[in-house]
Amino acid sequence: MKISFRPRLGSGSARKYLVLLLLIPGGYLFEVCVMPYIRIFEITPNLLYALISIVTVAYGRVQALWVGLIYGMLMEVMLPSIPYLNLALYTIPPLFCSFIFADRSLKALEMDRALNRKSRELPAWLRTLLCAMSNTLVYETVNVVYIFLGGSSLNSGHILRGLADVLLTGALTFLVSFPVRRLIFGRKVINPVLKKTPIVFGRK
Asked: Up-side HSE of residue 204: CA atoms within 13 Å toward CB?
């Protein structure tokens, strides 16, 4: 009988929060220095919402709130418009989305197990994608409302541009989420597997 397994790379809480500390400034610098040059149909996907959504699903509500707050303050300084608008848009929608898309707590999972309830949860990559698209949809909706209240005439171009931003941000999130989550959690654990040759009974 042989026991075969793959070694697990370190992926404890220290690793997760070290990655988070590097992810916050790295994501912001990439957003302001690189993303303006990545334009599809004259639209730049929102990398910050992609990263906020990854943090929402991988870390939880509290970390998502802090990351959104930091990005909101930075964008408030970089792109001043209506006072505190960027701060609100990068903080409040991710907070509400975290209640829907964040991983369930260990306490909730243990409660389901104790009550013998089957917990149905969407895959992490899908929840990350939906979270990013939901945040971007709120962002674009507020922008359209702001344009309308500002006295400008709305047309189909504004709506299509907003929907295109939602789709492009979702595509960017899909591409970025897999390597970033691999960086956060490391390699998946593969439980030890017992291997043995089958027992054959024969007549002498």
From this structure: 0
